[in-house]
Amino acid sequence: MHTPTQSQLPLYVDLDGTLVKSDLLLESFLGLIKGNPLFLFLVPLWLLGGKANLKHQIAIRSEIRPELLPYNKAFLDYLREQKQSGRALILISASNFRLVEAVARHLGIFDSAIGSDQTVNCSGERKLARIKQDTDAFVYAGDNNIDLAVWQKADAAITVNTSASLARKVASICTIEANFAASDGKFNAYIRTLRLHQWLKNALVFLPLVLAHELTDLAAVWNAIIAFFCFGLCASSVYLLNDLLDLSSDRQHRSKCHRPFAAGDIPLLSGLLLSPLLLLSAFGLASLLPWEFSFVLGIYYLCTGLYSFVLKRIMLVDVILLAALYTLRIISGAAAISVIPSFWLLAFSMFLFFSLAVVKRYTELDYLRTAGIAQTEGRGYFAEDLNMMAMFGSASAFLSVMVFALYINNDDTREQYLTPEILWLICPLLLYTVTRIWLLAARGKIEEDPIVFALKDRVSQTITLVCAILLWAANLDWREILL
To answer: What does pLDDT average to over the chain?
Structure first.
């Protein structure tokens, strides 16, 4: 009797974490609540019917795009080689059959697809039992501890993205056919997903402290520092949530496709746990400040939630809200040190940040036009809107400079500064800055948030320093000094 060699044995391939560097249950769940957050209240009811029922209920209400999933490329290449050699490949997963079949159909290399149905969760011992219905001799490729039950009965194992300890356990119970080691750099991936460089935007909380001339008040300075970290933690929580909800659109973006969740560099579950933890830390730290600050921080988080779920898809409303979120940082900085922000400061910030928010959309539309794509994914803009957006943004930028000029001529300003005329020197610097940013955007030189760009750009840094010196100089009585 001819005994098949190991390479001739059918290869059963796990999906989540093995073939795909993601979890289709979580992907479909996130897509579901992004479309309608009210489904969150139905999840506990579905779970009462068992995990298989939960997967089924989510799968029939959501769609995944197999062509956008982050596949383990090295392992996928191996599978294609095995298919060309005539080996039988079977995709088997604890994910719902509807999702498993969609992936198998897209790849076109699997002889069949097996997944969970409404009553049976195809995982662990149940997965093994399902394989045993087909054959007693097989090779299994997996990535998780729960797969040990299958590997114990397999003729050989393929380990993919497993930890060193799990790889040793698998090697002790069966022959290793191939190993695809987990990639290094997970710590760096977590740092990148927190987007610590975006914390630079939270420096806006210090603006009321500077303009209120409270830099010598150590208590006020300390409160502003605490406010900075509160907004940083809250913002990182928001970034995690946005990345989780925007997986599909990020994977189609030229640079966002490299974000850790979109690329599958870190588990989606980590984000679902880390986001609320960061938020709780932010509000815990905020308890050290006046209650007004926590109130503003709560409004900020509420607005970001509305932005993530609804408003980011509404044309122009999204950029207005982005401008408001920047302005809320300034308001929170004032609340942290118990001062009232001036009308002029709020008006200036709204016009300026609206312009910069439009720059962000402008760069995205410019990419769409270059790539020949008609419409943004998940947003209300078309590539043909590019010129109109440039008009809106540049007009708002010039209005912000005009507001600053009116502020200089205001009676309250003349009482606050000993030599307010020096502030006029800031106007041409502002004109140069906003005009330069728009020119760079038109040339395709800005590929990130323009606020972050301005904070990292040497020219913008120099102009900011000069403006700070001019603000300091305006507080001096130069008539007395010179005479």
So the answer is: 89
Residue 96's H or E segment, with its range, is strand 89-96
Q: How far apart are CA 300 and CA 413, in angstroms?
A: 29
Amino acid making up residue 322: L
Write out pLDDT tens, residues 205-255.
998 988 887 888 899 999 999 999 999 999 999 999 989 988 888 888 777
Q: Which H/E stretch holds residue 13?
A: strand 11-13
Q: How many residues does the chain have?
A: 483
pLDDT score of 1: 38
CA distance 285 to 294: 9
* Structural domains present in the chain: 6-182 (3.40.50.1000), 187-482 (1.10.600)
User: Which positions ≥6 away from 457 have C-beta within 8 Å?
Assistant: none
pTM comes to 0.82
Alpha helix segments (H runs only) across 310-410: 317-336, 343-371, 386-408
What Rg do the C-alpha atoms of the chain give, in angstroms? 28
CB atoms within 10 A of CB 287: 10
Residue type, 85: S
CA distance linking residue 320 with residue 422, whole number of Å: 32
Instruction: Express as a percent the part of the chain with pLDDT over 90.
Output: 59
Comparing CA positions, the residue from 285, 299, 267, 304 lying closest to residue 22 is 267
